[in-house]
Design brief:
CATH superfamily of the largest domain: Tetratricopeptide repeat domain
Number of strands: 0
Radius of gyration: 24 Å
CATH topology of the largest domain: Serine Threonine Protein Phosphatase 5, Tetratricopeptide repeat
Helix content: over 70%
Shape: elongated
Structural class: mainly alpha
Number of helices: 18
Strand content: under 5%
Order of helices and strands: HHHHHHHHHHHHHHHHHH
Number of domains: 2
Distance between the termini: 26 Å
Amino acid sequence: MAEPVCARPKGRFGEMSGRCQGRWMRNRPYWIVGALVALLIGGLTACDQDSAQQTDGSQREGVIAFDEGMTALDSGEMMAAIDRLTASIDSGDLDEESLVSAYFNRGFAYGETGDLDKAIADYGEALKIDGTRSYIFVRRGNAYLDKGDMQNALADFNRALELDPEDTYSLYWRAQIFLEMGDTPAALADLGRALEIDPEDAFTYIARGDIYWAQNDLDNALADYEKASELDPLEWRSRAAEGRTLNALRRHEEAADVYGIAGELNPSAVVAFAGRCEALAQLGRLQEAQEDCDKALRLDPASSEAERALGFLAETRGDLDGAREKYQRAVELSPENAAYAEDLARVTPTQ
């Protein structure tokens, strides 16, 4: 069985745990809206202060620093944003609304520089001023997640959902936490609720599909991956996950076709070519399979998916020595993958 597709790089659903821990979720629509709302609130408040706090035709220094900090943040200049927002916070010139925004956005900037403790502290300061803003609990919950502090993250997402029960972002991340804690039914319930609220969220379908995949519930996994592909035809990860599941269901012709679509959508997707290699080998199209495996390995010479696919191709050809070599390499590259160990054991003679 092929490696997980990593549909949500930071997701820890199913077999993706421990492998797909990038930060793409920070770019989900909720976060963009939440941050922009905060930026906008801050900017509008500063504008109000601009008119209300002028003396002799000049702005207060703290308000100017606030505006400069927000401009730096918008430009991705995190250290400059931290410097100017700190000046605005220390100035005493900001009203409560702008002070909340200054702490929130400085916390975000700290988080982007990797200083999670300072980010969490700033979100906490913002919440001391106004503890009714769900998006601040969400951001602090994400920071706790990045630290691996599941209990505090869970508490923040719970509070966010008390304030906004239809926040699908918080439902998604609370599901992740439940899954880490071993409560799969609760994780599925949260994802199901999120899809009731927003039935057009392709990524949540992928996440739920990954849980079904980990449970070996292949029919439900496939249904969710297909729905995700229907909602977002340009999302290659759902196509690759479809291919993986179709291979497991022994529907290899369909798997090869879907993997082909994934490869067209993302020509650098190793898993698409490694997966199609396996599907083509199952169909006896060994030369085509070899070409796909070779391409996967060229894309990433350290890919366990490619090595595993080459092992399967060698096994299909009856080359057990070659299969052992490739499976062993896959195990070395991804020792946590139990399926690779099973592949290696299958072609290793018993003593």
